[in-house]
Design a protein that fits this description.
The strands form three sheets. Strands 3, 4, 5, 6, 9, 10 and 11 form a seven-stranded mixed beta sheet that branches. A two-stranded antiparallel sheet has the order 1-2. It is elongated, with a radius of gyration of 23 Å. A hairpin with a 2-residue loop joins strand 1 and strand 2. It starts with 11 loop residues before the first helix and ends with a helix. It folds into three domains: about 70 residues, Arc Repressor Mutant, subunit A, CATH 1.10.10.10; about 100 residues, 3-Layer(aba) Sandwich (D-Maltodextrin-Binding Protein, domain 2); about 100 residues, Periplasmic binding protein-like II (D-Maltodextrin-Binding Protein, domain 2, 3-Layer(aba) Sandwich). Helix 2 crosses helix 3. It is about 40% helix and about 20% strand. The protein is α/β, with parallel strands linked by helices. The chain contains 13 helices and eleven strands.
Length: about 300
């Protein structure tokens, strides 16, 4: 008969140690946040692993990553901490949003464009709530951030939301093309123009690249050359300097003139649906409830 794990040794400090490492990315940072030494943090996690009979982290190079068992433990551990926090937060101050925190994640291009309007409105109304803004690199990381509970909600592309998560449409973000100012664009954006210019874009599977590729497909052409970068802020200046083209959200395209470029209109409706994504949770953070109400 298999030996059952001894759960009598599991403690809240051990669970908090694991969750803090996940949230802050390293043992060093987690120990600093918890106000304990790194050896003490390591002992807490090792004791939890011994009680459960499974490893929670594994060393990958110089970093520590969750094992499969660790990934399954994190959501349950976070629920334990969240429910404890809910018990401690039943006072009037929490109900009136005089204390608490709200963690919002988003794609980099949305943190600088869509997110400020809504976060600013929330902060103006509830300045006592501590806000944390987290950047994620792609949609897959965004979904993982919500599933693990590292953020209360996230701004992302709303039509790509898994069935186990909730989403609410926020806005439709229109795109524009950017080219050098001296480029002859009298005939507008067409297949001939696109087939002659180097494309500067993000790599797949980012939503900006997906919108861009759809434009090429709709016009029946492909770019002759593609320059990829993960730096969204580099798309506009790099495309202009290379004598090429990029397709980005309109708020990013407005910087074209600064770098010696100009905007070209894309077909009407070209863009992406932006939504806020969050978990189904019977113990929803009151600050998140209010934030969703303001959208």
């Amino acid at each position: 008969m298999a030996t059952q794990p001894d759960l009598s040794g599991v403690s809240l400090p051990q669970i908090a140690a694991v969750i803090t490492v996940v949230d802050y990315g390293s043992f060093t940072a987690a120990a600093d946040v918890l106000g304990i030494s790194q050896p003490s943090l390591s002992r807490r996690i090792q004791s939890l692993e011994q009680s459960l009979g499974v490893p929670i982290f594994r060393a990958v190079g110089r970093t520590m990553q969750l094992t499969d068992a660790g990934r399954s433990i994190v959501p349950a551990g976070r629920r334990i901490l969240d429910e404890l926090a809910s018990i401690n937060a039943l006072g009037a101050s929490t109900r009136e949003l005089k204390t608490g925190s709200l963690r919002i994640a988003g794609l980099p291009s949305l943190i600088g464009s869509v997110l400020p309007e809504y976060v600013g409105q929330f902060h103006q109304k509830h300045p006592e709530i501590h806000l944390e803004i987290l950047s994620v690199q792609d949609h897959e990381e965004l979904v993982e951030t919500i599933r693990l509970g590292s953020a209360d909600a996230a701004f992302g592309v709303s039509h790509q939301v898994p069935a186990d998560l909730e989403s609410r449409l926020v806005c439709q973000q229109e795109f524009a093309a950017v080219v050098p100012a001296n480029l002859n664009t009298a005939t507008g954006l067409n297949a001939q123009l696109l087939s002659s210019l180097s494309l500067v874009s993000l790599p797949q599977p980012t939503s900006i690249r997906k919108v861009t590729d759809e434009i090429y497909r709709s016009l029946g052409c492909v770019p002759p050359r593609v320059i990829t970068t993960v730096q969204r802020d580099a798309l506009v200046p790099l495309s202009i300097a290379c004598g090429g083209i990029t397709m980005v959200p309109g708020v990013m395209a407005t910087t074209a003139e600064v770098f010696g470029g100009k905007q070209l209109a894309l077909p009407e409706g070209t863009g992406r649906a932006i939504g806020i994504i969050y978990r189904r949770d019977p113990f929803q953070n009151p600050a998140l409830t209010e934030f969703l109400h303001l959208l």
